[in-house]
């Protein structure tokens, strides 16, 4: 039995920060003791610090500074750093988010140390094991004690993998909570002025390994983006991963195409809010455009977020089909097939998750007899 249990959140990459903020706020409102471990997987100020500031996240209690590397090297550094910090803090629960290498490492470390875990954004599947994220998702969900699902199809995926339904909670999408909270601050005008865009424009974000790591794939992608830029000015806040390879493939400033550094959370969503079209391979951006009602073309053969297609503005495209799809999207505007937004994407996922965690902590702190597990 533990007095005053501690919850640790393991965060490492840009989308983790956005998903965690509503959970951290929800637990704070319930008075739960908590802390953030920043793994340092993302470390540039524009990939990390700006999110802590924009989302009002508290300072991490530790930053492991693991940085970049191959999957094995990065994951190995994460495992070593996380084992030390989890052993030192002895949390009652570790919460992990999404599908990045920091998520995978934290779940493995905690499983071996017998520290209970919760996974936020459980059950998403692209069924594409060539994506490093899909491997991370499957392993994480196999090992997590509490699984928080953001959309209903996740429940079926987890059931098919034999996850005990008692461990799963359909809670809605905390990334959408963050968007709701930011809405009053989303003003396109200042960021448009700073970046020199006006009138109709498209925003592009590109960073998936399948799109940006291989020179041939990068060339096809860049040609397709140039086909969009023939129709409408395109502004690309570029993730550092693909910067050099995409530039080598021709993604450089030219009339109707502007390449800039990654934007902070509020600036980026402000720019998207004012856009006529988004071209992306991001997971989170598919969801945010659905909520903002901005047409989104996702340059991927699959998505682990099909609800953004059935209940949102998202369409999957290939590089070859992108220019024509952009022309159609610019003519048609945003249309959602079902006319309804995804269920429980209502801005209250963080408080729901916090309530489940608080109840779980209370139950864990009862003696086995009081829990009714032993006579
Ligand atoms: C990671 C996640 C991906 C997620 C993305 C969000 C994994 C396997 N992938 O991909 O699922 O969609 O984050 O953005 O965890 N770099 C910098 N500065 C930084 C961070 C990265 O320059 O602050 C560069 C480095 O060259 C690095 C490369 O980006 O090698 C890739 O970074 P890494 O964290 O390994 O993967 P991402 O592509 O960012
Ligand atoms: N984002 C941002 N600035 C940018 C690009 C993206 O703030 O220049 C935000 C975006 O709004 C979303 C999150 O970063 O909240 C998504 O991260 P990313 O696309 O890197 O990861 P993914 O969702 O693909 O894992």
Describe the protein's architecture and organization.
With 375 residues, this protein is an alpha/beta fold. It folds into two domains: 6-173 and 345-374, Rossmann fold (3-Layer(aba) Sandwich), CATH 3.40.50; 184-332, Rossmann fold (3-Layer(aba) Sandwich). It contains 17 helices and 13 strands. The protein has helices at 14-29, 49-55, 71-89, 101-113, 132-143, 153-160, 174-182, 188-195, 209-212, 215-229, 243-248, 265-273, 283-292, 307-310, 322-332, 349-365, 368-371; strands at 6-11, 33-38, 62-63, 93-97, 117-122, 146-149, 168-170, 202-205, 234-237, 257-260, 277-280, 296-299, 314-317. Strands 3-2-1-4-5-6-7 form a seven-stranded parallel sheet, with helices on both faces. A six-stranded parallel sheet has the order 10-9-8-11-12-13, sandwiched between helices. Helix 14 links the parallel strand 12 (296-299) and strand 13 (314-317). Helix 3 (71-89) packs across helix 4 (101-113) and helix 8 (188-195) packs across helix 12 (265-273). The chain is globular and about 65 Å long. The two termini are 17 Å apart. The structure holds uridine-diphosphate-N-acetylglucosamine and uridine-5'-diphosphate (UDP). The site of uridine-diphosphate-N-acetylglucosamine has 19 residues, from helix 1 and helix 5.
